Please model this.
Amino acid sequence: MTDYPELRFGAGLADQPERWPVSASEVVHETGRVIAVRRDAIEPPGGTPFVRDVVVHPGAVGVVALDENNRMLLVRQYRHPVGYKLLEAPAGLLDVQGEQYRLGAERELWEETATKAADWRILVDAFTSPGLTNEAVRIFLARDLSPADESFERLHEEADMETVWAPLIDVVGAVLAGHLQNPILVMGSLAAWTALNGPGFETLRPADSPWPAKDR
Model:
């Protein structure tokens, strides 16, 4: 086995922020609603310049909502780009100016499932496709659930949305079998299962912890 360096938690096992110089940048496409496409001319240190297109995205939050029996609250929603009705964790864009991330997660849980939660923690932060877009997602764990006082009027794809419960262990099994493919559901359920059967939910980060990757 090649003698590569070994990293450990707290000793180098972390992503490193870095920005290479950009000699030119232009917006080549803008929808006016969610995304834009930016073309950057990049000057790598000591290397040959190159051009990359970047999908500029506001970011998103997702919610793994578990009841007292560790059942996970899911929604089934039509997703036109992939041609599937996907089972998903409640999630949505960070498209409200100045909204705190946890409040965005609370809003999405309420809008999509008419549910509220008293206990919030952070499961994982991730870049969804870092070779293409700056989209970052934060996935929360929500527990101590109860029905919301009022519901939200759903539109477009959400008008046909179905809400279901599934035991977390079954969600994880379906993920590993390739039956569930939504990335927030995949990451969130596996992270929740790891925490539940490892260090425990109480060791997770507080819900209002900084998000350096999103705030750069």
Summary: Helices lie at 101-113, 168-176, 183-196, 212-215. The chain has a mean pLDDT of 94.
